[in-house]
Amino acid sequence: MLSLSIQNCLRSRIGSRGIAPAEIGKYRSNLESARGSLESRRKSGRLGFFELPYNEGEAGRMEAAAREWKGRYDNFVVIGIGGSALGNIALQSALRHPNWNLLSAKERRGGLRLFVPDNVDPNLIRGLLDALDVKKTVFNVVSKSGTTAECLANYFILRRELERKAGKDAAKKQIVFTTDPEKGYLREVSRREGIPAFDIPANVGGRFSVLSPVGLLSAAATGISVKELLRGARTMAERCRTSPVLKDPASLYALVHHIYMKKGSPIHVMMPYSHQLRDMADWFRQLWAESLGKKLDRKGGQVFAGPTPVKALGVTDQHSQVQLYMEGPHDKVITFLSVKDFGGDVAIPARDGHYLGGKSLARLFKAEERATIAALSSQGRPNLAITLPKVTEESVGELIFMLELSTAIMGELMDINAFDQPGVEQGKLLTYALMGRKGFGHHLKSFRKWL
Amino acid sequence: MLSLSIQNCLRSRIGSRGIAPAEIGKYRSNLESARGSLESRRKSGRLGFFELPYNEGEAGRMEAAAREWKGRYDNFVVIGIGGSALGNIALQSALRHPNWNLLSAKERRGGLRLFVPDNVDPNLIRGLLDALDVKKTVFNVVSKSGTTAECLANYFILRRELERKAGKDAAKKQIVFTTDPEKGYLREVSRREGIPAFDIPANVGGRFSVLSPVGLLSAAATGISVKELLRGARTMAERCRTSPVLKDPASLYALVHHIYMKKGSPIHVMMPYSHQLRDMADWFRQLWAESLGKKLDRKGGQVFAGPTPVKALGVTDQHSQVQLYMEGPHDKVITFLSVKDFGGDVAIPARDGHYLGGKSLARLFKAEERATIAALSSQGRPNLAITLPKVTEESVGELIFMLELSTAIMGELMDINAFDQPGVEQGKLLTYALMGRKGFGHHLKSFRKWL
Fold it and tell me: How many domains does chain B have?
């Protein structure tokens, strides 16, 4: 079971920059109201991400689709961006081989290679077409609204390429949509043309959607057990619901960060000591930044609030960022993602009587982690540890659900709406106008001086 | 030629959070002393990074080595970390195909595939061995001191694997060191065993070493023109030396960030609108953080200074971080890396009368960039643009040198030593102790409570 330690945020461990236990106790009722408020919105069906771990029927349908593709196709391309790409990438690097796309089909046990072209740089898409045999590829177009410009542009391009090389009928077999169950362009096309589609529940927002078909269909295609992921998420959901708030890891994780924001440390670093978990930090970056970066609080007051999440990686960033974390401003809280069992080790052979000979990589990796934590703590730098017994579907499911719930609780503590994103609207309107979409030209008017 | 625009940091463009032109003028003499002080240290041979662009002889030797490998080997593995890995990765993604390692030897025109295992997670190294035929691989071990634990551990493991599969003699042909010209473990081994070695000049620090064999040998191996890279760097070096300080892009770039740090914006985002330049932001992150994150100023006073660099990517992070940048705290300065010519485009085909049909990816990509810049500027969010005419060896060389010089100037403005890293020493000592290195055990004593 995943565990959270906040020891190195306490005064007893890191001195005056630590939190006194009484400070934590003061927030008990705030946390209880936060959890209560989320629970009542869950019950009224407004927070769909709570329900995703329980949708085993959908997991079965995805695994059945993956079985159909296995052996028949080589590649799976996710055409999505943001919340429709970050979770897919994170699951893949956490749970598949580090050089997955270079392995043979046999080594992949029939799991498809995965590509997630989450940008519209022409070089990226041309490069994708060079590397893919489209006749052996399944394309998963992921957009809840069916209006995401980046997603549709890449879809139009890749669909034409597919039809050119594999014929008009290929679309029905090799394209699958993941979109709103009722409305939007992709749903219409699905109905009209008979292209299969999975649902994104209407009450699930993009950045909370990794445990829906958005994140799980590609996972199933590469051979990850989506049922185990959901089981892990359920374990965490039950644990957070039934624990006292000050023992609930999601609440405690939010609270510590909330207290440090008030203390003037708004930069929240996530630093996995696991190469496999490196992209979980990118997924978390979206969740934390887009949910909590808000101009207005819920009463409409201007607050310009929001922590800045930062991705780092152990040990790699010891050679890049740790100098700053050790000696720079006291404006950071660091979360280490720690792993107990790497599922295998590599012996370091003896050579020239060097002290590393006869040790192992896992021992070195853990020694560096412990040394970095001790060094930072000794300088009064607050840090938390989330420990996974091992990187498995189950523990990754636990981690995902804990961080989603924690984000929601943080929104309550900050008194902002963690589920909208009004700040990206203006950019979208201007993009439509610049692309010549009808009825949007007038948006350019007041922006002339910057365009 | 590369250009820098600071327009969207000026009061006339972004209102009260902008800089008044007079504020910039006030710093002219500070910048002149900064440049003068660096120039005198360059002349006395203490700042070797200034000289790297002029070392064309070394460039010739690297290109000759690469010609030897071409056709004979398939893979090039850089065994390094931090400053011995980030530049290599950045050059490769900027200047080679996005799916380089998946292309055939013919498509790569004999350039080697590149792997940079810059971590000691056992899964990463096991995964590397699964994907590589070591008999067809050149291993480049990069460590200036020859003491970097991560580098040596991976070297010992990979060398044994090579000797097992290709025999004892393979080391002399398939291993090449990049290290101090005179001293250290790797230099000794090179002398004793006849393993070829390239030099890291003694006066060049790790994070300023990308234009030495540290970053350039792997570039040459994949077919990047190192001479063109150096030519670009020289163009920038001359330009910065001969321009008035307020027209010199390196000085101006540092100054704007310095002013914003004083205004309370210590988070410095680098956001390329070029998928190819995404890893330049990671390389810059080390340069900026490790150089400028310092506890002491040059008089020994405690300052706990240093900006926090953040990597973002256009358009991808519009769907992740831009909500925070638009609406969150006024604590950020954003640098866009902008590219004029993508060297090719992809047409978006017409479909269902959609407005994107008939446009192109490059147009969409640029529209999103312009829209994001306009939207952020309209909210008083300061942003700069570094524009490359096209991503080529020459323009990347210009960019690298500009950012290195800017970092050095920033150190002068902040009155800190930009060339040391005392904050990582403690972690290293503790790691040695935990790994059982003789004579280091006593370092554990005062850290017991955190270990």
Answer: 3
Task: Name the one residue in this structure whose structure tokens are 């689709």.
Answer: A65
Q: Are residues B77 and B212 in the same domain?
A: yes
Which residues in chain B have their CB less than 8 angstroms from residue A315's CB?
A: 81, 119-120, 150
A321 and A240 within one domain: yes
List, as one string, the DSSP characters of B334-382.
EEEEEEEE-S---B----TT-TTTT-BHHHHHHHHHHHHHHHHHHTT--
Q: Are B119 and A278 in contact (CB under 8 A)?
A: no
In eight-state DSSP terms, residue A360 is: B
Whether residue A239 lies within 8 A of chain B, CB to CB, comes out as no
Are residues B209 and B76 part of one domain?
Answer: yes
Which pLDDT band, with edges at 50, 70 and 90, does B274 fall under?
very high
Please check whether residue B69 is in contact with residue B110, taking contact to mean a CB–CB distance below 8 angstroms: no
Name the band, by pLDDT with cuts 50, 70 and 90, for residue A410. Answer: very high
* Cβ-defined contact of A327 to B423 (cutoff 8 Å): yes
Of A163, A194, A224, which residue sits at a domain end? A224
> What is residue B255's predicted lDDT score, i.e. its pLDDT?
98
Is B15 near chain A, with CB under 8 Å?
A: no
Residue A36: CB atoms within 10 A of its CB come to 12
Q: Which alpha helices (DSSP H) does A81-148 contain, by range?
A: 86-95, 122-131
Residue B43 lies in a domain: no
Cα–Cα distance for residue pair A11/A376, rounded to 1 Å: 14
Active-site amino acid positions of A: 290, 319, 428
* Sequence-distant (≥ 6) Cβ neighbours of residue A147 within 8 angstroms: A184, A185
Triad A376, A268, B82: Cα angle to 5°:
60
Instruction: Assess whether the previous peptide bond of A116 is cis (omega < 30° from 0).
Output: no
CATH number at residue B64: 3.40.50.10490
pLDDT score of A370: 98
Does residue A139 sit in the same domain as residue A191?
A: yes
What is the spatial distance between Cα B114 and Cα B97, in angstroms, rounded to a whole number? 12
Instruction: Identify the domain containing residue A71 by its residue range.
Output: 48-224
ipTM over 0.95: yes
Instruction: Pick the last residue of a domain from B194, B226, B258.
Output: B226
Quick: pLDDT tens for B247-261.
Answer: 999 999 999 999 999
Query: Does the residue A362 lie in any domain?
Result: yes
| B221 and B236, same domain (yes or no) | no
Chain A contacts of B449, Cβ < 8 Å?
Answer: 13
DSSP category for residue B19: B
Q: Determine, yes or no, domain membership for A43.
A: no
pLDDT in tens, B167-211: 999 999 999 999 999 999 999 999 999 999 999 999 999 999 999
B321-376 pLDDT, tens digit each: 999 999 999 999 999 999 999 999 999 999 999 999 999 999 999 999 999 999 99
Q: CB contact, 8 Å: B135 with chain A?
A: no
Query: Is A246 in the same domain as A393?
Result: yes
Q: What is the pLDDT of residue B406?
A: 98
CB-based contact A250:A413 (threshold 8 Å): no
Percent of chain B with pLDDT over 70: 100
Q: Does A435 touch chain B (CB under 8 A)?
A: yes
Instruction: Tell me, yes or no, whether A206 and A254 share the same domain.
Output: no
